[in-house]
Amino acid sequence: MRITVEPGVYVPRPFTQALARRAASLLPSDGVAVDLCTGSGAVAAVLGSAEPTATVLATDLDETAVACARRNGVDARLGDLFAPLPAELRGRVDVVTAVPPYVPTAELHLLPRDVLAFEPRAALDGGPDGTTLLERVVRSAPAWLVPGGHLILELGGDEADPVSARMAGEAFVDVRVHQDEDDLDRMIEGSCAPALQNGD
């Protein structure tokens, strides 16, 4: 697929392709997917292309990113995580994806100079330990997922263990961590257990 990335929008990384493919494989043809922190809308565009009859929505806090995602054919909404979504989707989403900011604040200076110069800090800064947004998504997702629905998140560094623990405590089972080509933890997924949905 060809994705337009406007100036000031987070640039999709090659390793995010694995997340997009995994999410597409789990999305029913008549299902609902939500891509949070969508940026240019790359993941949402892949989902919509893979399952044209599914409902695919995306959200982002950044107006420039939302406009860019819309230019890429994505139904993108402006706002914080799940907040811009229609209330009728609560409990009806089959797949939630997110590539949230996950670089620890103290490590931002280690990023390549071009990344720091041209990409928005808000799309990179994951808070003190890099998991601030990851944990918010994990806490909020069960209220939106169908029983057995999937949450798939990109992460980095040493974040897999704390995020796995959070998912285990927040209605998720079959939690799995996936490595990238360099054997680094890069993606985590889990299924929402019906008996544990907590409505947060």
Question: What can you tell me about this protein's structure?
Answer:
It is a single chain. The protein is of the alpha/beta class and 200 residues long. Helix content is 26%, strand content 24%. It has six helices and seven strands; from the N terminus they run H-E-H-E-H-E-E-H-H-E-H-E-E. It has helices at 16-26, 42-50, 63-71, 113-118, 132-140, 160-168, and strands at residues 32-36, 55-60, 75-78, 93-98, 145-154, 172-179, 185-192. It is globular, with a radius of gyration of 16 Å. It starts with 15 loop residues before the first helix and ends in an 8-residue tail after the last strand. Mean pLDDT is 92; it is low at 196-200.
Question: Which class in CATH terms?
Answer: Alpha Beta
Distance between the termini: 36 Å
SSE arrangement, N to C: HEHEHEEHHEHEE
Order of strands across the main sheet = 3-2-1-4-5-7-6
CATH architecture: 3-Layer(aba) Sandwich
How many helices? The count is 6
Q: CATH topology, which one?
A: Rossmann fold
Rounded Rg: 16 Å
Largest sheet: 7 strands, mixed
Specify the overall morphology: globular
Can you count the beta strands? 7
Q: What number of structural domains do the residues give?
A: 1
Stretches where pLDDT is under 50 for at least 5 consecutive residues are 196-200
Helix content: 25-40%
Strand content: 15-25%
Q: Please tell me the overall pLDDT.
A: 92
Q: So, the CATH homologous superfamily?
A: Vaccinia Virus protein VP39
Structural class computed from helices and strand pairing? alpha/beta
